[in-house]
Structures are given as structure tokens and as C-alpha cells.
Design brief:
Blueprint: H1 3-18, E1 28-30, E2 37-39, E3 42-44, E4 46-50, H2 54-57, H3 60-72, E5 77-81, E6 89-90, E7 94-95, E8 97-98, E9 101-105, H4 121-134, E10 138-142, H5 146-150, H6 159-170, E11 176-184, H7 190-203, E12 209-213, E13 217-218, H8 220-223, E14 232-235, H9 241-244, H10 254-261, E15 269-271, H11 293-305, E16 310-313, H12 316-319, H13 337-340, H14 344-357, E17 365-366, E18 381-385, E19 389-394, E20 400-403, E21 411-417, E22 424-431, E23 435-438, E24 450-456
Parallel strand pairs: 4-5, 4-16, 5-10, 10-11, 11-12, 14-15
Antiparallel strand pairs: 1-2, 2-3, 6-7, 8-9, 13-14, 17-18, 18-19, 19-24, 20-23, 21-22, 21-24
Helix pairs in contact: 1-3, 3-4, 6-7, 10-11, 11-14
Protein name: DUF4038 domain-containing protein
Pfam families: Apiosidase (PF13204), Collagen_bind_2 (PF12904)
Organism: Sphingomonas kyeonggiensis
């Protein structure tokens, strides 16, 4: 048997154990409060990964390996580029387009991967979508990367035809989310993106849609009122405080969330592309330090504590499916994606999802007033609360004071929760009045991050 066939058979056998055959991806919708999402009417926490080039750089067996691993790690959304360039292709399927024209998708009769000439690029996307659905994973698809519109290949003439093709092909595939745009300035080619978004929404009204903007910008700046935009997405980007100079935002991704939280009409918001684990600071600047797992955790916890409905993680080698020796390498990669997929940050995202899902999700609101002595930059402490619970995240593990009385109960029960391994350290029970100073375990230092969990002492102990 061919080595690829052996791997595929082994992965398929593992899948039978890893997920039930009829795993569900219920329809997503915006919750009545406008801040969060529902899946089949139940609260949904988006734990996403950037698998951007999955379609062009993986075989079926490799895509299976990727999806199974991310499923095990607790991810339930994968962001993928449908067209990275107008020459988008997969070695096993050939090009996605005829003559590089988005208005002319290259489709073939049949979809048998064994028969020559039958299995095309769109059949491969069909298979990935269905396999992800079986694993309970949603695909957030970018129809076209921004450079395709900037170069004129996607334009007002062909955007409607391409949008209709996508909408009609995938409107009945339940686990689809649309990310209009693609790392691009929202004020550029606005009419093209409007045409594409409006067309997809017209023929596929059942799937949610947003806009994926360029770094350090937010979809709400240009498209908040667009009828096709169901939720906001920002890209907090890959530069450090030092590389931002006098920027008022810098690495403070929580500021985008705080701003969008109070916009009207109310729409959910998420950081769709923070600094990738394993990528140099600033992306294109060689010999810079690389973002590590503590940074990935900080971006995730800051955003969610500020009110984001979920978070998207990314790893440099995985998002581009890096293979040593390939001429497609970008951003100083050093590790094969099959190894990088087990990066510490990727395995630690599940602890964020686990804690958020352990308490009533839809009632949670950001509440910076809980912190009496807040700091700036890495010393910033972020807090959110529900009716009978509160979460407080510190990236450095520095001591801080909390205003009590904001949640229910005459007494509160407190413990520390580790974003690194999900373990808990009991603190105790005390009166829910006045203020209290908390000192996290360990020494104060970047990456000694902890979450203070406060619960109404009358409630049963949750899993965390």
C-alpha cells in the first residue's frame, strides 16, 4: 500500500475514536444580546485556528491529520483561504480558476479522487468541509485574499459571479462562516468587497459573515453598518510595543473589543488574527524575537475578558503548512508544520474555552471597574463577570486589588486558575464586600499568568 494511503487509513481509524460519525455543527446565529454567538440556539464559544493555506498545501491525509489534531486540542473553528492568489492550486487537483479569473471557477465532472480528471480544487474543499463537519469544526472561509482585489483580478465585473458560485455551492453545508476581505484595508476596493459580500449574503443568507481586515485595523471602521456584516473582526497584528512607537494601541488588542462593545447597533467582535506563536515580531523583520506561547495566551485572554465572543489562535508554521526546503516559505520558518502543530500555545487554548464554557456565557460582561489599581501594557489586568461569578486575568502575576460586591452572594469563593495547564489553586471564602488584595502564585514576571475566579459561595463548585 502507498505510504499516503497507509497514513490516511490510520487517521481514519483514529477518527472513528476521536469523534462520533454524526458530529454536529448546528447553524450559527447572533445571540439576542448582540454580543455573542449561538449554535443551534445554545451558547457558542469560538475557539479558532488559522489554517490559512490548508487547501493549497495539504493532501487529504495531511488535512485529516491537521483537523484531528485541532479537534483534540479543543478548536472548533478553522480559518481558511479559499483563494490566496488567482493562481491558487492544489498539487492533487490542479488550479482553482480558469485563467486566474475568480468569475470562472474550474470545475470538473464527478468528484472521485482516484479517477484522473474528476477531482478538482472545489471537490477538495467540499471534502474538507464535510470532514470538518463530522468533527464538529466550522470552516471560516476567506473567499479571496485582499491582494487579488488590489491587483484587479477580483473586480466589480466578476465579484458577483464568484460570490454566487460560492454561495450556491456551500449554502447547504452547515459549518460554513464567511470572512469577506482578507488581510486588506477596508477603505480600499470598498465597492468590490461590498459586491462580493452582498452577493454571497443574497444567495446564502443562512451563514454568518464578517470582514477580515489588515493588521491593527477593525472591520467596524468601514463596514459596521453593512447589511452583510453579522459580527466584527479585527486583526491585532504582529508588531510589538517597541515596533509600534507612539501608537496608543500597540499590543493592547483588548482596546478594539472595548470600542466595539459599545458600538450601535450591537454586534459581536473577535480578534481574528493576533500575533502568531513562532513568528518574528513584526513578521518581516529578521533576527527579531519570536512570539511565544505566553504571548498567544495573553492575546486570547485579554480579548475574551474584554468581551470578545471567542478568539482565533495562530502558529507561524502551521498557518502556512511549512515544509523544509519548500520555496513557499515565509516569515523565517524553522519547524515542519507537523511538529509545530503541537506548539505549547495551541495545546493551552483549550483551557480558555474550558473556563468560559464552565459558567453561564451569555450573561458575561466586561467590567474594568472591578480592578482598583490597574496598570498599563503588560501590567494591565482584564476582568469580566456574570451574575454570580467573575474572572480576572493577569499576564504578569502581579498582585492587584478587586472591588467586591459586583456579583451575587454574601460570600465569594475564590481560586486561581492556570491558563498554562488548567489546574486550580484554592484561595478561600470571604465576605463579598469592600475590596480585597490578591497575590497570584509565583514571582511577578511576563508569562506568569493567572485567572482569579470568584463565585457566589452558594453555587455548587464548577469544574474549574
Amino acid at each position: 500500500m502507498h505510504a499516503g494511503s497507509i497514513l490516511l487509513a490510520a487517521l481514519a481509524a483514529a477518527a472513528a475514536v476521536a469523534a462520533p460519525a454524526a458530529a454536529q455543527t448546528p447553524p450559527l446565529s447572533v445571540a439576542p444580546n448582540g454580543h455573542y454567538l449561538l449554535a443551534g440556539g445554545k451558547p457558542f464559544f469560538w475557539m479558532g485556528d488559522t489554517g490559512w493555506l490548508l487547501l493549497s498545501r495539504t493532501s487529504r491525509a495531511e488535512a485529516e491529520q491537521y483537523l484531528l489534531t485541532r479537534k483534540r486540542q479543543g478548536f472548533n473553528v478553522v480559518q481558511i483561504m479559499v483563494l490566496h492568489t488567482e493562481k491558487m492550486t492544489n498539487p492533487a487537483t490542479g488550479p482553482a480558476l480558469v485563467d486566474g479569473d475568480p468569475g470562472r471557477p474550474r470545475t470538473t465532472p464527478g468528484n472521485d479522487p482516484v479517477k484522473a480528471g474528476e477531482y478538482d480544487y472545489w471537490d477538495h474543499l467540499d471534502w474538507v468541509a464535510k470532514r470538518a463537519e463530522e468533527l464538529g469544526i466550522y470552516l471560516a472561509l476567506v473567499p479571496a485574499w485582499g491582494s487579488i482585489a488590489d491587483g484587479g483580478k477580483l473586480n466589480l465585473q466578476n465579484a458577483p459571479a464568484y460570490g454566487r458560485f460560492l454561495a450556491e455551492r456551500y449554502k447547504n453545508q452547515p459549518n460554513i462562516i464567511w470572512l469577506n476581505g482578507g488581510d486588506t484595508r477596508s477603505e480600499m476596493r470598498t465597492a468590490v468587497w461590498d459586491a462580493l459580500g452582498s452577493t454571497i449574503k443574497r444567495y446564502d443568507p443562512g451563514h454568518l459573515m464578517t470582514f477580515h481586515p489588515i493588521g491593527r485595523t477593525d472591520s467596524s471602521w468601514q463596514y459596521h453598518d453593512a447589511p452583510w456584516l453579522d459580527f466584527n473582526m479585527f486583526q491585532s497584528g504582529h508588531r510589538s510595543y517597541a515596533q509600534e512607537g507612539a501608537s496608543a494601541i500597540g499590543e493592547d488588542n483588548w482596546r478594539y473589543v472595548a470600542t466595539d462593545w459599545i458600538r450601535l447597533p450591537t454586534k459581536p467582535v473577535i480578534d481574528g488574527e493576533p500575533s502568531y506563536e513562532g513568528i518574528p515580531h513584526g513578521l518581516h523583520e529578521a533576527n527579531q524575537p519570536r512570539w511565544l506561547a505566553p504571548d498567544a495566551r495573553r492575546y486570547a485572554w485579554w480579548a475574551v475578558m474584554a468581551g470578545a465572543f471567542g478568539h482565533t489562535y495562530g502558529e507561524n508554521h502551521v498557518m502556512q503548512f511549512f515544509t523544509p526546503g519548500a520555496d513557499t516559505a515565509n516569515f523565517e520558518p524553522i519547524t515542519p508544520w507537523q511538529q509545530a502543530i503541537e506548539a505549547p500555545g495551541a495545546n493551552q487554548m483549550q483551557y480558555l474555552r474550558r473556563l468560559i464554557e464552565s459558567r453561564p456565557m451569555l450573561e458575561r460582561v466586561p467590567d474594568p471597574s472591578l480592578i482598583i489599581d490597574n496598570g498599563t501594557r503588560y501590567d494591565r489586568v482584564l476582568a469580566s463577570r456574570g451574575k454570580g461569578y467573575a474572572f480576572v486575568y493577569t499576564y504578569t502575576g502581579r498582585p492587584f486589588s478587586v472591588r467586591l460586591g459586583a456579583i451575587t452572594g454574601k460570600q465569594v469563593r475564590a481560586h486561581w486558575y492556570s491558563p498554562r495547564d488548567g489546574q486550580s489553586v484554592a484561595i478561600g471564602t470571604f465576605n463579598n464586600t469592600g475590596q480585597h488584595r490578591f497575590d497570584p502564585p509565583g514571582e511577578t514576571a511576563p508569562g506568569n499568568d493567572w485567572v482569579l475566579v470568584l463565585d457566589d459561595a452558594r453555587t455548587p463548585r464548577a469544574g474549574q
